[in-house]
Amino acid sequence: MDRRSFLKNSAIGGAAAGATALAAPAYAQGNRTLTLVTTWGRGLAGVHDSAQYYADAVTAMSDGQLTIDLRAGGELVGPFEVFDAVSSGQADLYHGVDYYFLANDPSLSFFSQIPFGMTYMEFNNWFYHEGGRELADELYSIFGLKAFPAGNTGPQAGGWFRQEINGPEDFQGLRFRMPGQGGEVLGKLGASVQNLPGSEVYQALASGAIDGTEWIGPWADEKAGFQEITKIYYPAGFHEPGPNLNVVWNLEVFDSLTPAQQSIVQQAARADNIWTMSLFMANNAAALSRLQQGGVQVREFPDSVWDAFGAAAKEVIEAPIAGDEFYKRVHDSYMASMNSSAQWASRSEGEFAAQRNRILGM
User: What is the pLDDT of residues 29-80, one digit of tens each?
Assistant: First the structure.
């Protein structure tokens, strides 16, 4: 029995649920300092900035009642340890991307990113208006957590390679850094997939421990310095068209906040979500131009590779459905919402953008 089923069915879980239903809220008094841990190394462009934005926003909006003490990945706990640290109460909240924690529950993939999944706006449509938030509450509460979208990088690049990719067979034996279900897709194509924190990727690529990597996109990749190691770059990727970053609170800590403070931490997350997305989009085009001027060779995967990505992605995404009723519910809700959003967007924004770019020569 997995942890989710155990907690739902155990006497401890039932007793806790009963106590929660009967007890009156107990709000902490006075000013509080809360510890925020992250999956990001300090200074990683965009993602660490997003965590810092959230910390600063909560402190400012609460007029100092809530001070958020940000500890970057490795400063209190390791980047991949933040989920357990907040769940256990070692820290109060974390900022990160939850496909790092699929071993806890595969359904977390839908609240971070699945291959060929939702864009930034499609995710927001689902989360805020088509059932995503309710499913998130159900899932995260099992681990004693409360999650809010708090950033998005926009479409992530296919990555950096030492050799050009001409067909699916070129992934055979390739040592490549890619987390989440995207990494599982490359594994099906024969790659040796590595799941490394962002702060460790440059050294792994420079030392030859890996043959290639994806990170985020031109601006963050340039800041990380991958162009110093290899010059072959694929701007379009299949794995993360709109990866959602979360701020995730320990549920008991969140429940101890006053209603006004709870509203503040939620509204700060919404502000962070918009600010982070626009930060990446504002910087990526200029960064890609600089990379090309510096000798980076921009490539696109051939159709045969895209087809292989698609076939493998379907297997990876659907694999847990048969044995996991909750995963199936989240999957079906996610897919229905994405289909609805995509149909409208293709008829409206998609057609407009194509005509605008044609008329203006963009």
Answer: 779 999 999 999 999 999 999 999 999 999 999 999 999 999 999 999 999 9
Residue 227 is encoded by which pair of tokens?
Answer: 């162009």
The string over 301-326, giving b where at least 16 C-beta atoms fall within 10 Å of a residue's C-beta and e elsewhere, is beeebeebbeebbeebbeebeeebeb
3-state secondary structure of 115: coil
pLDDT digits (tens, 9 = 90+) for 104-148: 999 999 999 999 999 999 999 999 999 999 999 999 999 999 999
Q: How many helices (H) and strands (E) does the chain have?
A: 14, 11
Q: Name the residue ranges covered by the structural domains of the chain.
A: 27-152+243-282
Q: In terms of CATH architecture, what is 27-152+243-282?
A: 3-Layer(aba) Sandwich (3.40)
The three-state secondary structure class of 202 is helix
**Is residue 159 within a helix (H) or strand (E), and if so which, with residue range?**
strand 159-161
Q: Tell whether the torsion through CA atoms of 175, 181, 182 and 186 is positive or negative.
A: positive
